[in-house]
# Entry
Amino acid sequence: MERKDFLQKFAVGGSLLFTAPLFLNSCSDGTDDVMDDADNNQNGNGIKVDLNNASFSDLKTVGGFAYTGDIIVIRSGENSYIALSKVCTHQGCTVTYSHTNNQLPCPCHGSVFSLTGSVVEGPANTNLKTYSVKKEGDILTIT
Ligand code: FES
# Structure
């Protein structure tokens, strides 16, 4: 085999080797994407918060709060809980909770949100996303 022939065969074979994975990947039916989304939402059943878990011990007291993922969970009453996005809509800092004011201030630039997620004070101009919380025993389910 001459050098020219070898290079031609290598070029054809090599290009198939490099493009085959692209074809195989494009044959995906997308179920992997669905599984990822479902996994993030714990198979569509919502995020579970076990109130007995030490990470959530602040939720044992009215006015306490804790974070799970991108969500802030607030114990707003004896048997009531509120869940909102913890990501400030201004530039993405993590909001906190002030039980004294019943508001969620952002420490970065001073935005303030109400317990319904509404902007009380800018510079943020978009409300926080809210979630529903269901309590069964010591488990909160956030959806
Ligand atoms: S990131 Fe919250 S006010 Fe700017």
